[in-house]
Amino acid sequence: MVDLRPACRFRGRGNDMRNASKSGNGWAAGTIAALLAAVLLAAPSLRAAEDVVVAKPESVGMSSERLKRIDSFIQEYIDADRIAGAVTLVARKGKVVHFEAQGWRDKENGVPMTEDTIFVLMSMTKPIVSTALMMLFEEGRFLLDDPISKWIPEYENHTVRLNRDGVRPLTVPEARPVTVRHVLTHTSGLTLNPQGRGLSQAQIDHVTNDGKGWPTLAERVANAAVIPGAFHPGDEWQYGDSTDYVAVLVEKISGQSIDDFLRERIFEPLGMTDTYYYVPQEKVERMASVYRPDENGKIELMVSPTYVEPTRMFRGIAGLAGTAADYLQFAQMIANGGELNGTRLLGRMTVDNMISNHIGADRPVYIRGGGYGFGLGFGVLTNSAQAPDALSIGSYTWGGAYGTLYWADPVEDLIGILMIQIRPYNHLSIRPLFSNVVTQAVVDSLSEQKPTIMGRPTPR
Asked: Of 254, 270, 292, at which residue does a domain stop?
């Protein structure tokens, strides 16, 4: 049974949190870890931040002394007034080896950061929503190359804008329909923003519901079909609104709102008890304030957490808030090949497909700074020589616009999570630097690692 108590802090002696159950096509035991859910007769697992047991790093080939560099690294940013605070988490081979809160959750009011602090995840929503759609893929509901117009008919006979400059758009029919694969990989060319697209005012009013907005994402997506695509589907990679279409597909195919689907099919099974589209009023005080840099790069308050009355607008590109411990639930499930402590959400082969590059070598994911392609909801490291961090080929990742970051290295069986709240954050270089400070703490030899095929752990 799953313990759904809210998160708080607990530390204890290290224990092996690997999954006690095995399946015929499961990943190697070295990559199977169980975090946060308490299942009868299974190995001890993590429920939330109160049950995060920090193991001795040397038990999984990491250095305690070197991991301390994470604390000093983060503290330098706090002392320099570049960030207010952070929660950092590192897990390897089924064990959490680092889990720390530093600085301030709310600096103005002197509230310290705690491990159970809730962060606005922004685009770290995207991998979770993409996972939801792939769960339906496994039920035989669609093929990746099915057109989205099968469920969103407004996009049948969609057009593409050839001239990106000029007032009036020169449009042509799409060379090929927008498919499910296109929206999962950000190669659709679609957008929900009508501004600067050469639309008439009447069309803009149609898209925006006369400036009032639409009550649901499905209505917004349907009415945005008058906006021509930025390019022919599949021709380019462009980060944008594609995952909103993914969320609508989940709703259309499942018959549930994306909020209900995520809660019932992902959050509750994984014990993610602090992850929400709309944080309950009794938990708002645990949310971190959001900051921005002033003209000198010092932080100033941008947003103080306030309770927001829930609506029916649940987006795919952003919207979730949660804790580091909760996100580790999701991260470990993916790292385990779709299973967490006996609860399987995805098949291993589906996960391997999701964390493989789907966009080719000639269309790099520029938002990661080079060396990355894109899978079905995740950035995928394809070229170490161009990447800003020291992760292995085949590592997968995504982050959020307020500076949050998650990555997993399947070769090293290593997960890193960084939770901060500042926008913009690129001037800090904190995300790739965090990754490097984590990976330098791996000290075991290559001979102790599992054999790999194409950069991923070999299944047993």
From this structure: 254
pLDDT given at position 237: 95
Residue 289 belongs to domain spanning: 29-121+278-313+320-457
Tell how far CA 299 is from the center of its chain.
25
In angstroms, the CA 159 to CA 364 distance is 25
Number of domains forming the structure of the chain: 2
pLDDT in tens, 203-239: 999 999 999 999 999 999 999 999 999 999 999 999 9
Angle between helices 242-254 and 125-137 (to 10 degrees): 40
Token pair of 287 as six digits: 């949310």
Distances in whole angstroms, Cα of residue 278 to Cα of each of 187, 281, 322:
29, 9, 10
Cβ neighbourhood burial of 109 (10 Å; 0-12, 13-18, 19+) = exposed
**Alpha helical stretches, state H, 57-213:** 64-79, 125-137, 180-185, 201-208
How much is the pLDDT for 48? 59
Helix (H) or strand (E) holding 349, with range, is helix 348-354
Which pTM does this prediction carry? Answer: 0.87
- 76-114 per-position pLDDT tens digit: 999 999 999 999 999 999 899 999 999 999 999 999 999
The phi and psi torsions of 447 (rounded to 5 degrees) equal -65, -20
What are the contacts of 259-268 at 24+ separation with CB within 8 A? 259/314, 261/132, 262/128, 262/129, 262/132, 262/320, 265/132, 265/135, 265/345, 266/128, 266/131, 266/132, 266/135, 266/330, 266/345, 267/326, 268/2, 268/4
Q: Which helix (H) or strand (E) holds 95?
A: strand 95-106
Rounded to an integer, the average pLDDT of 385-394 is 92
Residue 284 lies in a domain: yes
CB atoms within 10 A of CB 244: 27
* 3 state SS of 398: strand
Domain boundary among 208, 238, 254: 254
